[in-house]
Amino acid sequence: MDSAPWSDPPVTYVPSTVTRSAKIVVAGGFGVGKTTLIGSVSEVKPLRMEEPITQASVGVDDLRGTPEKTTTTVAMDFGRIHMAGGRLALYLFGLPGQARFQPLWEDLTEGALGCLVLADTRDLDASHDALGLLESCGVPYAVAINAFPDAPSYPEAELREALALDPGTPLTVCDARDRTSSLHALITLTEYLSERRSAALLESRR
Ligand SMILES: Nc1nc2c(ncn2[C@@H]2O[C@H](COP(=O)(O)OP(=O)(O)O)[C@@H](O)[C@H]2O)c(=O)[nH]1
Ligand SMILES: [Mg+2]
């Protein structure tokens, strides 16, 4: 499995090839793998704001799918990567999963070019709140199913229906622990954002 480059010598500076940058948000329910994905792709040591899960979360935060999870994001995750031949830097902001953090979601989503929504087929409903927020604030998004080994797989049409996705919304599958796979999910999102931008430009010239 590919690991993040910062586990070797840390890369701290934005490469001189970068000419454009974008803020990207990573959203989705509790335990879907947001912190894991940002950690696997980031070139800089990710900033994590994790706190231990305590007794207070019993019956509130659902740990059935991820019994080994011992901490939870209480503010945000932050990471950075560059892509598109080194020209584009993405600043990744991971949201906390629980809907009780909604005011924070709204703040962190401000100014984002787009969002990657992670979902787990064992609990697709857990990503509904994040999808609802993105719809209401008009942030374009792509969805990636983070494939846990014991999670059921469904035909794409059923997943789209369960998540109420528009036909044009990209839907892909990833393993959040794997750098190449996570990068692929982010590339799917950035290609979609770039197509939308080109279409909007064409429309404005008509
Ligand atoms: N098997 C498997 N475990 C994963 C995967 N992604 C995350 N995990 C584990 O699932 C737990 C929850 O992941 P985390 O990134 O903290 O979820 P978050 O709440 O969305 O930030 C952690 O213990 C991860 O190690 C995955 O793709 N496969
Ligand atoms: Mg997290």
UniProtKB/TrEMBL annotation:
<protein>
    <submittedName>
        <fullName>ATP/GTP-binding protein</fullName>
    </submittedName>
</protein>
<comment type="similarity">
    <text>Belongs to the GPN-loop GTPase family.</text>
</comment>
<dbReference type="Pfam" id="PF03029">
    <property type="entry name" value="ATP_bind_1"/>
</dbReference>
<keyword id="KW-0547">Nucleotide-binding</keyword>
<keyword id="KW-0378">Hydrolase</keyword>
<dbReference type="InterPro" id="IPR004130">
    <property type="entry name" value="Gpn"/>
</dbReference>
<dbReference type="InterPro" id="IPR052705">
    <property type="entry name" value="Gliding_Motility_GTPase"/>
</dbReference>
<dbReference type="InterPro" id="IPR027417">
    <property type="entry name" value="P-loop_NTPase"/>
</dbReference>
<keyword id="KW-0342">GTP-binding</keyword>
